[in-house]
Amino acid sequence: MTLQHYLVISAILFTLGIFAVLTRRNAISILMGIELILNSCNLNFAAFSRFVTPPEDISGQIIAIFGIVLAAAEAAVFLAIILAIYREFGSIRPNEVDTLKG
Amino acid sequence: MEFTLKTFIFYGFALMTVASALLVVTVRNIVHAAFSLMVTLFGVAGLYVFLQADFLAATQVIVYVGGILVLILFGVMMTSGRLEMRIHIERGQLLLGGAVALALFMLLLTVIANTPAWKNRIDDGTALPPTTEKIGELILNGPFLLPFEVVSVLLLVALIGAALISRKEVRD
Amino acid sequence: MTVSLISLILLCPLAAFAVFGLLGLANRRFPRQDYLSTAAMLIALACSFLLLREVVPEPETHTVNWVSLGSVTFSMGFYLDSVTAIMLIVVTLVSSLVHIFSMGYMHGDPRYPRFFAYLSLFSFSMLFLVVSDNLLGIYIGWELVGLCSYLLIGFWFEKDSAANACKKAFLTTRVGDVGMFIGMMMLFTKFKTLSLYGEGGIFALAASQLTTGDMVWLSIAGVLIFCGAIGKSAQMPLHTWLPDAMEGPTPVSALIHAATMVAAGVYLTARMFPILTETSSLVIAYVGGITALVAATIAIVRFDIKRVLAYSTISQLGYMMLAIGAGSYVAGLFHLTTHAFFKALLFLGSGSVIHAFHAMHAHGHDDEHEHDDSDAHGHEHNEDSDSGHVLGSEIPPDQDMRNMGGLRHKMPITFITMLIATLSISGVPFIFSGFWSKDAILAGVLGRAMEWNSVHHYILFIMALSAAGITAFYMFRLIFMTFFGEPRNQEMHDMAHESPLSMTVPLLILAVLSLPVVNTLWFNAAYVKPPPQPHLHAPAHAYIAPDTKGGTGLAFSLFGVSEAVAAEENAGHDTHGTHADDGHHGHGPAHTIAMVLSICVAGLGIFLSWLFYHRRTLSAESVTTTFRPIYDLFWHKYYFDEFYDGVLVALTVWKARLFAQFDGTVVDGIVNGVGVVTRDILAAFTGAFDNRVVDGIVNRVAQVTWAVGGRIRRIQTGAIQTYLFVVLAGIVLLILIFRAL
Amino acid sequence: MSDFRAMFSGFPDFNISEGFFPNINLQEKLNWAEEFIQNILIPRLPEGVAAHFPVELGTMLVMFACAGIFVAVVPLLPLVLVLAERKVAARFQNRTGPMRVGPWGTLQTLADGIKLIFKEDFIPPQGDKLLFLLAPYVIFACSFAVFAAIPFSQNILVSDFNIGIFYIMAISSVIVMGVIMAGWSSNSKWSLLGSLRSAAQIVSYEIPLGLSILTVVMLVESLSMTEIVASQSNGVFSWLIFRTPFTFIAFFIFFISAIAEVNRTPFDLPEAESEIVAGFHTEYSGMRFALFFIAEYANMFAVSAIAVTLFLGGWEGALPGFDILGGMPGFVIKTLGLVFLMMWLRWTLPRLRVDQLMNLCWKYFIPIAFFNILGTGIWGLIFPEDTLVSIIISCAIIYSGLIAAYAIAGRVMAQKPAPQPSSI
To answer: How far apart (Å, rounded) are the C-alpha atoms in residues A52 and A54?
Structure first.
């Protein structure tokens, strides 16, 4: 296994996440895409921590842990907002929530 | 590359991750997508194990599978009737998004392949000491103390904010 | 030890007030404020007695730096000498007795707790003023005293007269305070400090640095500071507030007149003694003398029992000022002390009389002494709060001496104690303290006049002497009209009764204190020494204090006078040997003359009073008609209020009218003219420009923006995914472009 | 019999108790399998076969074989426990319980199992078939994966993870997913309600559970299960429950939360039969239902075993040097004791309401657990080492606390009026 294995896997996850965010018409699906993106980032951090920095230095893993925590916070707020939107608009399709459009 | 049991398992995890991630973005049923996401998260946890990040792997499973995914499923159950479980996708959107994602992927691949500092970094198989104690040292008695505190405050704020946003409006 | 004692003395009343502030205001009413305040004052009194032993022989100063502003440091501190110690005793003693008296007098008042809280604050302010070692501290205490007098005089603020009186007192004293402040600033600019004592203090600097050329400047500063005393101690031009201050409850009057407010002025003047020059001393002496005489003459014709006492106070304060101006420092302070006790006694006694009448007046058949709102209005009315146009008709019946008479059987304790006080203030010789202090002043003034060796300064002595005689006259007039003779108003007389114990006990204590024996305990030549006056070329040393030296303590006899004179001579030579050549030769004869004359004059006054108001061989009415102009002058209080009303107020109103007219014609005219020009000429032009050019530009811009915006807004779909798509596509494009470059 | 080693005698340096997780290098850690194949298996094979034997595949096969043994042995526990539950219930209700099949009804569970296997496997036609089929396996797998980290004895454990207790928490949190899967895919209101209730309950109670575990971890300074056990090797008073007053409280929080985690009475809202029939497994039948059933009892045993490991000394004995309550028998006895306690509670206490359930967790257990963590930290500062003094003080505090709690509880009970239904 080389660093590039992990980077490629991570890139695939990232791209799929972006794809989901761009194309899906359901806010929760978009959240899943975002989670994929975050996972790819965390994977990158862990991989760089293992391969690029000296092996004793595990700062990358700690950043990844912080990333997981941030993902948790983000998911909580995201879902809260989705619930609020659902109550307000009766739908969680992002293209129907466009009251702000010009 | 020598095909050992370890590489076999690694590729198994990689395949599981990528394939389930693909399912997440393609499957029409949102619940199926969520359970696919669970498999992806397990796959990533497995990859963490291969990176000798054992604590990170367990954290990944606890927080993502035990927390975030449950949250997502709750969100699904609360906002979608059974009929809305199917995700609506427009063809034009699909093409455009696919094109951008593909371009991005190509770009990333080029970067990964061409960055000299990243080449020839091979897992030499040396076992590293357990990380839990080190992580604890770094977070609670090292340079990451301040970020740790900031993150905990952020988490608290997010919790309170989420509770505030999602509760029913109290009208007097 | 001393510092902690002083701190305790200061903190006790302050704490009592603070408890009111914390509990009383929070709960609207802290019912045991009276016990608290009284206990605080009694503790302070005990501490004062302890302190009396501490200060002999050397004065002490305890100073801390308070604030530093640039190069100047303001300090705060205590100065403790014998005068301070005595003043502390006087203040705490009188205040304690007033507290106790008030527990009976004010019982049932709706704001009863608040009254005691104010009393505590009042006492604290006065004590703070007394112990301060610098002008800043004195000024702070000074203004606090003014504030408290404002609050207490206007305690029954439901009455218009009380509200007006407290405003009047506040504003009138403020006039003097401005002068005092200017004087302080003059000293400050010269010496860069406000401390009085010590190496860097004003007194030491003034003694060492000033030359004869500075005397004019120093005189002006002294007179200006004395202006403050004029206001506070109700000296001649600014005395009009004090009679009106009778609107406050009688215990407050006692406190203001005996121990705190008016004493502050005398105390300040005494404190400033070392920097008084020849000129400023003369000014002080004349102001004091005129005040003594004029106030005494006004007092003759009053019928309101409290007014009589008020003018009596003004007169006695004039005495004190006269003494200090004439250099009789010890005599002045001695009179301040003795006066504090017998005047407090007189006021509390009159309060007792009023209380007796008042209870009847308000309830008729009710034994409860309650002062509820309804009777607060009928209580202690003012005859003429503003200008005195209205004559005696508004004297409240319970204060009108014409309604009294024959009360000595009804109120024996009040009668006896008030009689003692009257004998004391009239200068009945030997066994009453007033005689000794007044005699000392007269002797000092006469001695000073001899030293000045100028005929017209004898006029001071003559004024003082006549004032003494008149004092005896009108005081006995008060006694005769109140306690002797037949009851003039039988209904009121029937209802009168002796006051409760809490009111008579203070009276008895004060009566004891009006005897000289007690005063000599602390007021003797060995204890109080006048400070040097380096700027005065003819030092006068009036050590006319009853002497207790030689350990005899209470040895006091008919020959005390000569002993006292001898003591004064000795002390003068001991402590002021440098000035001995200036001569004390005038003192021996001066004292004898003064004593003989004062006894004669007092006797004459009492005799006349007896003839007029008891024997009635002479008719006051016929004398009045005979000397109608003089009587009118006295009755109208020398037209001071009319003068202020007619000149100062009218001047101010005229000035205000002038300014109003100026404002109405000139200023408004300019403004209106400018407005007309602007509106008719400029506005037309700018209006056209605005409509054509500016609006045209704005409208075109708006139209263009509208048109463009209408097309561009379609880009903004409101869908986040579109935005994200554009952003990502842009990123990819940018990277590709930079890659290609 | 307390040692696998005896069973595998003749094997090369075979020490299964040496974990593979701390050093992730699989190659090295799987040495024993390769050596087994190369040194023992291949020489006994025919020449032709031995030359082409795929060693890697063989290693995996050996590992799977071991796992198979494990998976085959552990389900025996539920068989016993189900019978025990029925017997205990019967005793509490003054009955005799199953008596027909086998001597004293001992084979009753087996008979039930056989019956369940032959029953119709019903799948709701409107449901999500894929998830419906997968759900039991997810739960079953997670329940058994927990056992991989539990040390039954010094040598009987599958793997000594250095993050052992963390691993257990991670795995057990996945069970929720299986529950939601089952509930949602059944296309039944009862199932969905039950699964959502269960998910909320498990996610909530994981917090006090984890915080209680944290007190233990703070004292032992390790996440490894073997080290936690090793720190309790000095007799009953070195057991972590008695080590500080706070772990004593933590044990009860852990145990009660664990009961909630495994959805047993009085926290069995997810399967409250009087409200929602049977919760998330209402629609299951036959063998799939049996899997849920086995998983439930395996879970019960697992949480008890974890409680024993964390607080009650694990396989260490009650007296240092004597094998009383020690070794695998001791471990199993202690665990079964806790299991019996759970059954006792089930047949004694009534079910809680949802609001009571959540109140208990968020308003009492979590604050108390935080207080425990704080207290344990302070205790650690005061007594850096466990000495006789610290343990005496701890026991004294525990004892007096119990007395006080008893007295207060008695008084409160005496004064308390009859409970009124909450308005929520």
So the answer is: 7
